[in-house]
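User: Structure with iron/sulfur cluster, tokens only please.
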Amino acid sequence: MNPLVIISKGKDPYDTTRRALKGFPLPDLQKRRILIKPNAGRSASPGQGVTTHPRVVEAAIDHLREEGGREIAIGEGFIFGVEGQEAFLSTGFKEISDRKKVRLYDLDRFDPAERRIPDGKLLRKVKISSALNGFDFIVSVPVMKTHMHTRVSLSIKNMKGLLLRGEKARLHHLRSDREIGQEHKALDLAISEMATILMPHLVIIDGTVGMEGMGPAYGKPKEMGVVLVGDNGVSADAVASRLMGFAPETIPHLLLSARRGLGEIGLEKIRGKPEDYLKWEDPFEPPPSTFSISFPDIMVYDEGSCSACLSTLLVLLRDYTSGMTGYRLADKKIHIAIGKGLKNCPEGTILIGNCTSRMKRRGVFVQGCPPVPSHITKTLSQKRGILGRKGQR
Ligand code: SF4
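Assistant:
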């Protein structure tokens, strides 16, 4: 039978989620060990479109319990530089877990478990958190966002948070498109290969407040007031993409997943309820497709950086250049370097990200993987004080 996706619209995240879940057929949950995987890998307050709204997850917990689910936990793996407990607090998940008496798992605190990808061209195996071995029903609860490297970030992309921290960075560092001789970016191919072994059993997409433009972290909140529920992540993401104004076939990781037989993306083959759900389509501002900011007084050295560092740099140049003015070199330009392949740069270059640490004696090194723009400017202002006192600049 064609996959079913229920869409509900309303003002309150809890009520809207409950309505979407009502009537969605679920398997017998009594003996299932359920892990809810929100998008909560960053520190952000609810309702900004950066992380899943905790009230959506609260509604999911209540519904799953009423449907017989007994063992329910919330789990997330965090991006580099984000402390898990702090993020659980700021995103509202600590409060939900206390109130609803569900355990919170910082997935990076567990040993790695290796999973093979039988048909992987790019990925033969991945390292996930061994905490996952304790669960047999995964609920992916992403927030509806644009993404600078994958166009959208929805339920399939959200499963990447189950990989261990270093493994996430590895996916961003995979060989270039030309090397793997195919039309799509390596990252998109990797996500579709990962999906063959990490498909959620249930998907609840939080489109109450999403993010448009420079997602997944630096875009603008977008109020949609919708929640989608499905049991096929590829199809639910296809419907969500369309509501965001993107044809599903233009989302490479969804197209590649559909070609692997993981789900339908043709809307005519998906049973959307209500049938006239496209009346709620409200196009999101797309993510910028090229990295083309031009600053005549800034030199960027990018040798083999991954997408996360590039996004950081883009935001840094857009919003924080004033914090770097004290770092002009003799040519009156600010020199910035990112990436693991960096071999040369002038003395005094700002070296951003752990990948540049080999060169740290040549310049001003800022740690992070990915580095966070506000942390970069804070570090630079602190170091400028120290350098100034030492009379090194
Ligand atoms: S330091 Fe930057 S380029 Fe290196 S892995 Fe981390 S985010 Fe990617």
